Amino acid sequence: MGHLKLMKVLVTGGSGLVGKAIQHVVREENGAKEGEEWIFLSSKDANLMDMGETRAVFEKHRPTHVIHLAAMVGGLFKNMKFNLDFWRNNVYINDNVLQAAHEVGTVKVVSCLSTCIFPDKTTYPIDETMIHNGPPHESNFGYAYAKRMIDVHNRAYFQQYGRCFTAVIPTNVFGPHDNFSIEDGHVLPGLIHKAYLAQKEGKPLTVWGSGIPRRQFIYSLDLARLFLWVLREYSEVEPIILSVGEEDEVSIREAAEAVVEGLGFKGEVVYDTSKADGQFKKTASNAKLRKYQPDFKFTPFKQALKETCTWFVDNYDTARK
Ligand SMILES: NC(=O)c1ccc[n+]([C@@H]2O[C@H](COP(=O)([O-])OP(=O)(O)OC[C@H]3O[C@@H](n4cnc5c(N)ncnc54)[C@H](OP(=O)(O)O)[C@@H]3O)[C@@H](O)[C@H]2O)c1
């Protein structure tokens, strides 16, 4: 029996945007290999802020591999309001998960950082070596510092115990099963929801901010496919940025236009410049990813966005919003 036959993968945060995409790839795109077992957790299985519950769920499943996604997550406006909660909740979750994985002898953990945790004042493009080079943007410092500490954990587990605990750094993720909350969600799902309502009510679509900031977006299904590759083949402890290329960065205005197209929105689009813009840009380099995966094909942005809009319309009643 080969090594892969023995893989038992526990996915924390398995019910969220990224977790559902990994479920899709594993179950519907033949992403799982023969003999592998995949377990997807939600907060109903264990509150990972609690060490007792975290230990119990790790003892129960004794995973050989972990994809650690569970986190308190939110868009700009939720981050600005709850920096303390973002810091504390995520620090507890990450410390509990990594320690419980260590205690049951998990050989590999892939955690999830984010490009929005990088220093605010930096040179571009951002790369994997720059995570700790300066303070993050003040809007999300609680989330950013908590996420940065995962990298500290990973290096320390390797140094002290030789564990292969690593992390990926995705840019802004979007796709089916996102949180479409207008107040608390990320920019794209918030825009999709607002455009959907504006269409129904015959009102203009109001985009928060100037529309000028620029972002790289990654489709959750592309991220899921890359996660499987990292889990199986990437052997560095240092994190790796998972992103489309620098040339694929779009402005919020272009993103709003793609939402308008994806939903077939016919009304007027206005920009509310009294609302915050957040970081102007956080352009990330995917050179390291391209070194390992020169041929990986990302789903074109407009196609992925259209699929997401269609999913939202089809699942409006049950979607998180
Ligand atoms: N979305 C993005 O743009 C983005 C970008 C970069 C990185 N990331 C990272 O990607 C990972 C997944 O994000 P996502 O967008 O998929 O988030 P999400 O849709 O909000 O899902 C969060 C997941 O974490 C679980 N969770 C939250 N608190 C928990 C707790 N106390 N105990 C146990 N489980 C808990 C949730 O369970 P329930 O469903 O039961 O609540 C859910 O499965 C996160 O680590 C996030 O930081 C996201």
Task: Explain what you see.
α6 packs across α8 (252-263) and α8 crosses α10 (301-314). This protein has 10 helices and 12 strands. The termini are far apart. 41% of the residues lie in helices and 14% in strands. It has a domain at 7-175 and 217-245 and 282-299: Rossmann fold (3-Layer(aba) Sandwich). The protein is of the alpha/beta class. Strands 2-1-3-4-5-10 form a 6-stranded parallel beta sheet, with helices on both faces. Strands 6-9 form a two-stranded parallel ribbon. The chain has a two-stranded parallel sheet with strand order 7-12. NADP nicotinamide-adenine-dinucleotide phosphate is lined by residues 13-19, 42-44, 47-49, 69-73, 93, 112, 114, 170, 172-173, 179, 186.
Annotation keywords:
321 residues, alpha/beta, Rossmann fold, 10 helices, NADP, NAD(P)-bd_dom_sf, GDP-L-fucose synthase, oxidoreductase
Structural topology:
Layout: E1 8-12, H1 17-28, E2 37-40, H2 51-61, E3 65-68, H3 76-81, H4 83-103, E4 108-112, H5 141-161, E5 164-170, E6 172-174, H6 187-201, E7 205-208, E8 214-215, E9 217-219, H7 220-233, E10 240-242, E11 250-251, H8 252-263, E12 269-272, H9 287-292, H10 301-314
Domain NAD-dependent epimerase/dehydratase: 9-245
Protein name: GDP-L-fucose synthase
Pathway: Nucleotide-sugar biosynthesis; GDP-L-fucose biosynthesis via de novo pathway; GDP-L-fucose from GDP-alpha-D-mannose: step 2/2
